[in-house]
Amino acid sequence: MTTAQNSYINDTQICSILEKYAKPDPAQVRDVLAKAREMKGLSLDDVAILNGINDQQQLEELFATANHIKDTIYGKRLVMFAPLYITNLCANECTYCAFRAKNTAIVRRALNQEEIKHETQALIKQGHKRVLLVAGESYPKQGFQYVLDSVRSVYEARYNDADIRRVNVNVAPLSVDEFKLLKAEKIGTYQIFQETYHRGQYKKVHIGGKKMDYDFRVSALHRAMEAGIDDVGIGVLFGLYDYRYDLLAMMQHIGELERAFGVGPHTISVPRMEPATGSDMSMQPPYPVSDDDFRRIVAILRCAVPYTGIIMSTRESAEMRRDTFALGVSQISAGSRTNPGGYEEEDDISGQFSLGDHRPMDEVIRDVAQMGYVPSFCTGCYRLGRTGQDFMDLAKPGAIKAHCGPNALSTFMEYLQNYASPETRKIGLELIDKTIAEMEGLPKSRAEKLVGRVKNGESDVYC
Question: Which Gene Ontology MF annotations are present (predicted)?
Fold first, then answer.
């Protein structure tokens, strides 16, 4: 299935802008950073100027600006989630991915619905409340119904009366009618990555299967939003092509979503290519991204799209994840496995990619709290209808923090009481007291009330 070639990813415009601002004047950089602090977003030219920074002092100013924006809009909270891979069957031949169709080095598996419930229970035992359901582009004999049934199974799973409160989904592009069926299962965010926006490179690395159709993939978020899914997630796989190009192309894509639907992506993910079983390309990325450039990418995105959540997965090391919290990351996975059945069974070779952060959930939570960040398991916005335009109306001026802050604290308290180790509980309780003491006005009164209700035995309280 194909679509007419889109006009909003404009290669000529991207190349022209990158050439124009390859060596920006320091005054131009200062002007863009001042504009970024207004938290109204940046243009393609602005992003190219930040890409071109080659002065260490100005790079530090970029990082400080990103930190200011993130703290103003989201505060010190970090949303926690885990991926749940239900199948590694795939009909595509993506040269960088372990799930590619012709790879015989991994064990193929599609979980049945009971197995999905068991995997979900394993996540609930860890304390998770948000799950990202992930599947390769090939399903068992039920076809797409398998995905719908799987979402339902995650919601139905229980452990000690606890459950998963929100399922986000990362699956292959769908038709509008299929997206409507997905929405009916009460998913949160629909997430899909273009991998790279450069058509030539896209063609080189996608050599078999439906994923070869660039335009059908790049237009998937349009169909999702047409179907009524107003929270969507976007991203590229850094390392496939020049990150400077992909950043500008992603901005074009975001701009088109804002033009067509009045709202941009709810999240932007920043995966960087990591080794994958059976993929030579993954061992030597064609356009490797250094740690310094990776930090720059996160900071630029926070400045360019200030309202969006930026997601950092366990592809990255614990050290890199720590570094990027201050640069704009607002959501992280923890205790992750990337192979079907991985939460109940150990399998080091059948995952989609290698993990950089192998720490268990409790250790990640403790580390985050020691740094002064509040781990959040909140799903209140989804369940109160603060999605799409309603969410953006609160996020863009920073007003969402009045909800996110108290909700983060109440869900963190719930985690500490029910799942945390004694050491993590002690550190977390101290952080909650300190955080509430520093709050003012309505957010403070909300936080005190919600946390108090959790201490008194209530669960799943939010505002």
Answer: 4 iron, 4 sulfur cluster binding; catalytic activity; metal ion binding
Q: How far apart are CA 308 and CA 335, in angstroms?
A: 24
96's tokens: 């960088």
Structure-token pair, residue 191: 């997430």
Q: Please tell me the distance from the alpha carbon of residue 41 to that of residue 141, in angstroms, as a whole number.
A: 45
- What CA–CA distance (Å, rounded) separates 237 from 280? 16
Which phi and psi angles does 238 have, rounded to 5°? -70, 130
Question: Could you say which DSSP state residue 312 is in?
Answer: E
Residue 430 has pLDDT above 70, yes or no: yes
Q: How many residues does the chain have?
A: 463
Task: Show Cβ contacts of residue 282 under 8 Å, excluding neighbours closer than 6 positions.
Answer: 96, 97, 98, 273, 274, 275, 276, 353
Is residue 352 pLDDT above 50, yes or no? yes
- Residue 338's pLDDT is 82
Which tokens hold the place of 40?
A: 């109204």
Q: Between the CA of residue 359 and those of 181, 200, 317, 375, what are the distances in Å?
A: 36, 38, 10, 15
- The lowest-confidence range among 143-152, 353-362, 450-459 is 353-362
Listed in sequence order, the DSSP H helices in 174-267 are 176-184, 199-205, 214-218, 220-226, 243-261
The answer to whether 139 and 92 have CB atoms below 8 angstroms apart is no
According to DSSP, residue 286 is labeled S
| DSSP notation for 384-399 | TT--HHHHHHHHTTTT
71-358: CATH topology is: TIM Barrel (3.20.20)
Q: List Cβ neighbours of 239 (8 Å cut-off, separation of 6 or more).
A: 96, 272, 273, 285, 286, 287, 288, 289
Q: Give the residue extent of every domain in the chain.
A: 71-358, 382-455
- Residue 118 pLDDT greater than 70, yes or no: yes
The answer for 125, left when phi > 0, alpha when psi is -120 to 50, beta otherwise, is: alpha
Residue 391 gets the label, from left (phi > 0), alpha (psi -120 to 50) or beta, of: alpha
Amino acid present at 83: P
Q: Which residues contact 426 (CB under 8 A, 6 or more apart)?
A: none
Residue 353 tokens, joined: 């990619």
Check whether 387 has a pLDDT greater than 70: no
- Asked whether 65 and 36 are in contact (CB, 8 A), the reply is yes
* Two structure tokens written together for 461: 């309280």
Residue 143 · residue 93 · CB < 8 Å: no
d(CA 272, CA 285): 10
